[in-house]
């Protein structure tokens, strides 16, 4: 899982449109997959730190909790219906959002595009 997150970090830095979308986003986000926690720290749209958890001392604005199989299907080049979107995973009860959902909604396009960066065969 850490490899995909590091890949997201590298891809994010190659996408100037994402730097523009995330320019107002400076938060820490929890990504929890199969109980494994990762704290992603963004500063003005750049993923500056990836801290493995668990940690009770690391505050986060919101969290995205899912299972590894659902995330693997989300990262397919052409995901099946429901697996194509973060809220689709939530609707199918394969993920949940914790914390300040308003912060997520304010930066929804940025966060969705960042989470989709590991999609295999993605052509941009």
Automatic annotation (TrEMBL):
It comes from the Bacteria. This is SCP2 domain-containing protein. It comes from Aureimonas populi.
């Amino acid at each position: 899982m850490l490899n995909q997150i590091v890949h997201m970090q590298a891809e994010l830095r190659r996408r100037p449109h994402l730097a523009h979308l995330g320019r107002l986003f400076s938060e820490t986000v929890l990504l929890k997959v199969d109980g494994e926690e990762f704290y992603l720290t963004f500063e003005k749209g750049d993923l500056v730190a990836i801290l493995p958890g668990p940690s009770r001392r690391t505050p986060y604005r919101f969290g995205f909790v899912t299972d590894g199989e659902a995330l693997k299907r989300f990262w397919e080049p052409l995901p099946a219906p429901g697996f194509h979107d973060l809220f689709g995973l939530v609707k199918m009860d394969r993920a949940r959002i914790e914390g300040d959902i308003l912060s997520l909604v304010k930066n929804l396009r940025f966060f969705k595009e960042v989470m989709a960066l590991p999609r295999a065969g993605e052509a941009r």
